């Protein structure tokens, strides 16, 4: 499958976006002209199918042809998970791919700089009264006037993995900060029974769509609470998810299926299973809820065996597809869950699902130049398109399911020592966190650059202190000037507090230093960081 579907561009400027046309071997008219390989260039290091020279060529093509200063409207969510996530993952896997990295890696590198540039283009979307981002941003002009303020829940809560990684690698806290604010605003907007809807107004914070579930429009918000908690060792994020998990079990779970309910009342609104929900058993495995995960997974697997794939919508009471939702665009979610659960249990049933997936995809969707979306699972008609997530996720998870010795599964028995300007660090020891587009992030890399992050914050704290002192001095000078020139006292003890009512002198109070040793002047503190700011008013 990896070799059947092209994963790298030719040296001409790439024009494809999030999908290609595998039947006619032509590109689509892109959502926006971002190279297809940003979503799949980390596939080759994982599968070992591309030599280092080819990976280097892909990097060069991206550098030469990607321009973020273009007048194009882009999905904030999709740009983050596909472009920022793909570039970060490829950056962290560069050495594994056999590419010579620059000095200072993983805290610097061309792909990291591209990821940072792309992420900065998204920051204007977060400038809302609630801190929750708009769904669309213009890469050149920011948020367009009149842009709809309605954004799906996943489009607000799916940034912490990429943005926290970016902050740790670059030392700029702004990315992690905006991602955390967005997460917290969603948490504060949950209903009294602990559920969230699927679309919200980012200006007012009011819910526009009040159907609550674990699928489309919500899914990766829950996913990122768990993965963000693991990546950052953040107990608060995990506690938030566990509270949601209780509400989800109480109000949406029926016979190990998960339905859609009204977020305030808990009444069933849609008794359907969406193929996007198939990630849930894998997420349950990450929190150790294996029994519930396996029961739900087996429900989903029965649907797969019925059709040879998962329809977009499946009516649970009727046991059949929903009209106009019969297609299967080769989504990865059930295979993703199989990979996670197999790592946790070793149950051979999960390998059977993997085998069935390979056989059905090969039999039904394989075409001249790739694998085509199945338009209708009832008759297996095809659509002339191949989504980028097929390579980025579906193929990758299948490969990892059948490759138990892959470095992604490392348990710490092997690792790479890397020397950075901030000291020695360990990479590649395992524990990779996949973003929602299956781009693996090595959590150890975040600690490699932690000193860079701490230095950045230290400088910012010192600068705030410096400007605070400047403002205070200016206010004091303005106050003394406005009250007239200061006159020195005529007598040695002329201050009233040094005389009692009888006119006798009182002994002067002895001033005691607050510290046992003298404090350094402020300019000397700054000089410790290698730069002196003249303390002039």
TrEMBL record:
Residues 1-29, 478-516 are annotated as: Disordered. The active site is at residues 78, 219, 312, 333. It holds the Pfam family Glyco_hydro_47. Residues 17-29 have a biased composition (Polar residues). One of its GO terms (cellular component) is endoplasmic reticulum quality control compartment. Its EC number is 3.2.1.-. PANTHER family: ER DEGRADATION-ENHANCING ALPHA-MANNOSIDASE-LIKE PROTEIN 2 (PTHR45679). This is alpha-1,2-Mannosidase. It comes from Equus caballus.
